[in-house]
Amino acid sequence: METRLLKYACEVYRKQSFTQAAKALNIAQPSLSQQIAKLERDLGVRLFFRDRNKVTPTPEGIRFFKRAEHILQLHEDLEREMREQSEGATGDLIIGTTVITGGHVLPPLLQSYQVQYPQVTVRLVEESTETITELTVKGHVDVSILSLPVEDSRLTTKTMLTEPLFLALPTTDEAWLPEGLTRQTPSVRLEELAGAPFILLKRGYGFRQTVLGLCAESGFQPRVAYETSSIQTALSFVKHGLGVTLVPEMVARNNIGPVYLSLASKPTRTLVFAYHKDRYLPNAARSFLDLYDRVTQESKRH
Question: The HTH lysR-type domain covers which part of the protein (predicted)?
Answer without folding.
Answer: 1-58
